[in-house]
Amino acid sequence: MTAYVCSIDDAGIGGSAMVESLRRATAFFSSRGLPSTWFTVPKGRGKPMSTEWKEALIAARDAGHDLQLHGLTHGDCYEFGPPAWPATSILPTLQSDFDERREELMPRFTVDKLRDRIEEGMEIFALELGVEPTVFRAPCGAVSKAMYSALRAVGIGFHTCMFISGSGYGHLPHNGGALTQDWVDDIPCRPFRWYEEVVEVPILNEYNSRGSGARSDEFIELARQDLDRISGQSPVVVLLMHTHGIADDYEHTFRLIDAVSEHVGRQPGASFATMGELAASGALAEAATVDGPDILAV
Ligand SMILES: [Zn+2]
Question: Ligand 1 centroid to 74 CA: how many Å?
């Protein structure tokens, strides 16, 4: 029995084109009978949630899609920790920028400050959306030990941002252009117990980031290869998309979703679920039968 999660980041950030991405994608998921999980920024770039976003998010929630917390402001790529791979492979200047601003940025990463940010996000979720988040995803995958302590302190026991594969960004010119399967070996490819006993649910890969539609067939083939390989290795499989990646090429995104759904449908006992459902049912906690490695420097 394997549960597959389609997760989409950065709802709440950007203008009407990004709201439209949420609307069109949730309508498409619904038309296929698939649930989706939207990692939503409650105070995007530091601004209050717009009426447009609020209405679209509530409509998505009412249609059975899941809203979970994606930072507080997502003001940059260091909201909850220093820059992390594969964000650093998408934007190679992240690490040098962080290094130059290290003295300014490092003081952010205390349990108290990060707990305040998470709590503010939870309050906005409750007030504006009527949603109590149970799963967190740090913006740009930037995490710290203090963030896990802060999650534990506010009662959120699930986090998801570590990548099993970053080959979905291989098409970027500075990454060489190859789209071959390439998995990490430093983290388990199934949910694992990590810092402060928070369950970390790894992300398999992303297949529709900006520019990928030009190589749609190759990305769909890569997705099939990854799905074949993870099948039987993890009871929970998380796929990643972004609002801007979807809007970059709706046709490719919808072809990809159909191809993934068809491929998963051939596996006995496979089904699609939301992160919220898997957290609530105990499936995420049960899936975490292994401990994660102590690899965070901060
Ligand atoms: Zn994000």
Answer: 7
